[in-house]
């Protein structure tokens, strides 16, 4: 599919984009009310995944319904009736507690509301009752105490707008649970066990803004709108000038749903004076995505991030899941006269080079078009796939993303980028290095939970305990584009410490070059520069531990990746490590930055790091 060349100015441009992305779905109807393709499994089964395929198209087809061809409208209309008819072989079924079908209900319900109830008005009174009866099942069952509570709230509001008699008590209880998820600065925690991640912008905030349109006179609507304005000042730090958003957390296969929040801001007219800025954020992000191989040969969205990659997916990702990204096509509900269609996009505004995002424990850093989120980590239980990689690495990058493991033994398969791994020396394995078999420490433990989080405008810090033998406290400091890490490591027996920078594509077709010294490891190649250097003031014996990470492990590239690393042996006791990491896709810029490295000073009372006029001091006692 050649989508990157589509202009993103007029309403017709966005409608054309929606059609090109979603037209291939129409070849995969299974019956009238399910769309399903592919062969990989999903936790809730393929029959419900088929409902997902039908419903997720409606996030865009609903707002665009009156602008779609008659045959497309007919398919949607017949699918809605077949799916909600208990006598139909295509019936979507009766719900149970914590049912995945609840996730798809808001898109189905809202599609009935768009364009002056366009679809709803085409149904007879009996058909309307049938559809409403199926939707009302959501109020008879419990659902997850996170963003799912909004599904009840939105379905309730839609039914009220459609003059359907429905009890409000369950929706009111759901609103209480949503409020219990709210933290501060526009951020929500996705249930008591959940974390702060992209579910704030493309779920909580998106749904709260929709609610403010559905119930404008409810005082809660103004609360949601004010939270959206607060969050905008936070979320802008997830984006880079080229349009990329920093991958972090789960559900990254939803891809350009990352800008659904900004779309909702336009839809609800929350920040009208920023329309040109928001249009720029949306358009650059879409262009960034459309320049990547995220579609298969038939034009279907694939599972993965910047390419087809099952390795990084969640248990709840079916082949149709990525179409949740259709949330951005809420823009198609805007009238032709809306200012958005006449507005010329502007560049990303100037933002501070660093910004503390206190609720998710992130410290954003901006360096010549490269956005990095330094991460103290979020306390809480781990129950999502690859939690360590998605929530606990030291840094996440708009240019280099992060990597996920294929296994945890060889460094090449673990691809532990932006991590510190610790392991006692009695855990060994045989690996092939330089054509020879050698015995080395394997299966490193990395950060998987944190306590004692400290945050300032200059650094974030947290403690992580692996077991009774090993624990560490880590401070992360952005400094003039550099990432400085200070580790205080306590071990009760001899251990190996293995630390890495960012992983960068190193295709065998255009290989780069690794350079090492007694204190540093660096890589230069067509995709950019990445380096890691020991800045510890006292002499520390280290060795180069740079590896070529396996292909299809990094979110940004399917290629082999070069991952510079350093390794050292720590005897029983307490140790301090100071590490500098620098990476950038612009080689000349990176070369100049690497040539001027920070200076560190460490005493019993304080740590100080300086680079030119930039200096940060941390009290240790």
TrEMBL record:
Every DUF2264 domain range: 10-347, 354-596
InterPro entries, alphabetized: DUF2264_C, DUF2264_N, UCP014753
Coiled coil: none
Protein name (Swiss-Prot/TrEMBL): DUF2264 domain-containing protein
Natural source organism: Loigolactobacillus jiayinensis
């Amino acid at each position: 599919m050649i989508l990157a060349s589509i202009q993103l100015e007029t309403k017709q441009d966005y409608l054309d984009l929606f059609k090109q992305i979603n037209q291939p779905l129409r070849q995969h109807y299974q019956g009238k009310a399910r769309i399903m393709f592919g062969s990989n499994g999903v936790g809730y089964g393929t029959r419900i995944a088929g409902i997902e395929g039908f419903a997720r198209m409606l996030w865009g087809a609903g707002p665009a319904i009156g602008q779609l061809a008659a045959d497309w409208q007919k398919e949607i209309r017949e699918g809605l009736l077949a799916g909600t008819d208990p006598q139909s072989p295509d019936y979507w079924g009766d719900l149970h507690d914590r049912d995945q079908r609840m996730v798809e209900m808001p898109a189905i319900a809202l599609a009935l509301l768009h364009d002056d109830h366009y679809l709803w008005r085409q149904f007879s009174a009996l058909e309307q009752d049938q559809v409403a009866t199926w939707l009302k099942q959501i109020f008879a069952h419990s659902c997850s105490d996170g963003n799912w509570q909004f599904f009840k709230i939105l379905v309730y509001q839609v039914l009220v707008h459609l003059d359907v008699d429905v009890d409000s008590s369950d929706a009111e209880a759901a609103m209480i649970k949503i409020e219990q998820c709210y933290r501060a600065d526009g951020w929500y925690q996705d249930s008591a066990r959940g974390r702060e991640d992209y579910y704030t912008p493309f779920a909580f905030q998106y749904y709260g803004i929709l609610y403010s349109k559905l119930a404008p006179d409810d005082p809660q609507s103004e609360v949601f709108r004010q939270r959206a304005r607060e969050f905008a000042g936070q979320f802008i730090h997830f984006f880079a000038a080229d349009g990329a958003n920093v991958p972090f957390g789960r559900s990254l296969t939803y891809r350009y749903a990352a800008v659904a929040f900004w779309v909702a801001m336009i839809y609800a007219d929350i920040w009208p004076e920023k329309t040109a800025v928001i249009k720029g954020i949306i358009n650059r992000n879409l262009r960034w995505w459309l320049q990547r191989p995220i579609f298969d040969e038939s034009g279907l969205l694939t599972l993965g991030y910047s390419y087809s990659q099952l390795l990084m997916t969640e248990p709840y990702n079916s082949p149709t899941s990525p179409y949740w990204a259709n949330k951005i096509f809420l823009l198609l509900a805007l009238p032709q006269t809306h200012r958005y269609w006449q507005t010329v996009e502007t560049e990303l505004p100037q933002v501070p080079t660093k910004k503390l995002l206190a609720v998710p424990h992130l410290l954003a850093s901006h360096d010549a078009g490269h956005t990095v989120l330094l991460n103290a980590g979020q306390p809480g239980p781990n129950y999502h796939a690859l939690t360590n990689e998605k929530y606990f690495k030291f840094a996440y990058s708009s240019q280099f993303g992060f990597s996920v493991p294929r296994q945890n033994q060889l460094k090449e398969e673990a691809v532990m980028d932006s991590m510190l791994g610790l392991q006692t020396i009695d855990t060994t394995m045989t690996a092939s290095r330089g054509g020879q078999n050698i015995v080395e420490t394997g299966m490193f433990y990395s950060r998987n939970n944190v306590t004692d989080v400290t945050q300032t405008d200059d650094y974030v810090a947290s403690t992580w305990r692996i077991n009774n033998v090993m624990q560490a406290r880590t401070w992360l400091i952005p400094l003039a584009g550099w990432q400085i890490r200070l580790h205080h490591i306590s071990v009760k027996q001899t251990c190996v410490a293995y630390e890495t920078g960012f992983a960068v594509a190193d295709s065998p077709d255009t290989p780069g070059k690794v350079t090492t010294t007694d204190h540093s490891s660096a890589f230069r190649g067509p995709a950019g520069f990445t380096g890691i250097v020991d800045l510890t003031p006292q002499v520390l014996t280290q060795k180069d531990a740079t590896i070529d990470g396996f292909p299809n492990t990094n979110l940004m590239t399917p290629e082999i990746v070069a991952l510079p690393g350093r390794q050292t042996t720590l005897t029983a006791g307490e140790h301090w490590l100071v590490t500098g990491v620098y990476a950038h896709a612009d080689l000349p810029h990176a070369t100049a930055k690497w040539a001027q490295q920070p200076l560190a000073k460490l005493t019993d009372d304080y740590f100080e790091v300086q680079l030119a006029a930039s200096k940060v001091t941390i009290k240790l006692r």
